[in-house]
Amino acid sequence: AQSVTQPDIHITVSEGASLELRCNYSYGATPYLFWYVQSPGQGLQLLLKYFSGDTLVQGIKGFEAEFKRSQSSFNLRKPSVHWSDAAEYFCAVGGYAGGTSYGKLTFGQGTILTVHP
Amino acid sequence: AAGVIQSPRHLIKEKRETATLKCYPIPRHDTVYWYQQGPGQDPQFLISFYEKMQSDKGSIPDRFSAQQFSDYHSELNMSSLELGDSALYFCASRLGGEYTDTQYFGPGTRLTVL
Hints:
The complex is a heterodimer of chains A (about 120) and B (about 110).
Chain A: E1 3-5, E2 10-14, E3 19-21, E4 24-26, E5 32-38, E6 44-50, E7 56-58, E8 64-68, E9 73-78, E10 87-94, E11 106-107, E12 111-116
Parallel strand pairs in A: 2-12
Antiparallel strand pairs in A: 1-4, 3-9, 5-6, 5-10, 7-8, 8-9, 10-11, 10-12
Chain B: E1 5-7, E2 10-13, E3 19-24, E4 31-37, E5 44-50, E6 53-57, E7 64-68, E8 74-78, E9 87-94, E10 104-105, E11 109-113
Parallel strand pairs in B: 2-11
Antiparallel strand pairs in B: 1-3, 3-8, 4-5, 4-9, 5-6, 7-8, 9-10, 9-11
């Protein structure tokens, strides 16, 4: 079974500080990994995704993530956080799980980011 | 660019009533996924369709049913509503056949059961 763990429920950073959100996954086959961001009461916006190739992927809004197979991790980073980055961030894993199970996503519990001015 | 459309955006129902949520995927997308996100929870996969056939099933209650129509839109039918069904329901669509393609999420339908 596939699973995702985001160890940090809530993170607070100062504006301009660097950010790293942790994500660990468990998946029986080749994982396809995603980071989504959700503002309160809003939908899910894709920040970035990893399918294969370069293990450091760039996303929108200055975010990047690094896939580390040996550590089963896909941590999200940003060098300088802006107040508008305050939101909830979800890591998700998907892929081919056999049969007709194409691409359903399993999400982590989410990390709420608060940004202090 | 066209996005996933969900209707209604908000829905208030009484216990034991029924509700129908609709999802209109991005044009040409033939795969639809439904997710349920309870208050303070992560989204949970309910069910998916590919080319109008159910392709996968998650933790969807027997009181719920769904289908995908010839124009690829999908409807989630919920009967005998319970207080615990109050949640944000997301639909996502993807161009099927290649599971590495990205799922694009709609804005969600917020269902409140009183």
